[in-house]
Write a structure and sequence with these properties.
Length: 254
Amino acid sequence: MKAAIIGYGKMGREIERILRERGDEVALIIDADNRQDLDAAHLAGIDVALEFTTPATAYDNIRTCLECGVAVVSGTTGWTDRLGELQALCRERHGAFFYASNYCLGVNLMFRLNRQLAALMNRVGGYDVRIEEVHHTEKKDAPSGTAITLAEGIIAELDAKSGWVNYAPGIAHAANRVERSGDTPADRVEIRSVREGAVPGIHTVTYESADDMLELRHTIKNRRTLAAGAVVAAAFLCGRQGVFGMDDLLEESK
């Protein structure tokens, strides 16, 4: 596999290590100081690009790859209000595009368990639900894409919830924000965002009644699990056409 890495931060470097361990070729690395090299000439011959950058640059990066006929795997979060545009472009160009808010296998199993639990809670009743996500202080977006995916799974199954809001003290750019925890409308799922230390990622879904509490939690120990999942997704994408996500990859592995 001949790969390009777009975004050479901690995640990009971990992806590079795994690609080289596998014997894949890293033919192009794009970062902030050479972003002008993300063009048709430099992408020529690339099988797949792995894009992990920032909410401000992800859309243009992915669009460029698709317009140049290069398959692209992306895990950048905080910009996905425009995801549908790129999925449509991919189909129009007969390209290949894989997007996931989180490439950790355990997190994607949590997504499935989360929906199943919400469906059960919808039948039982008597519980309210909230989400907390904890990440390192360098994370640019809040709430995390993983937390949003969890919230969307709950909303799809729980009749009492029709949207989500974010409580993120000290994070000015948080979307759909409530002023403080406790102000959340009854028909919204509260997502509390915490930024501390070097935490790779902790996500907790909590159901609480007057009498008990149930928690579904996933903790990422290191970035390698995320990078490894992205590389597996890249290998999966090679030679394919269409729009894909982790559900497609999990179904393929059965």
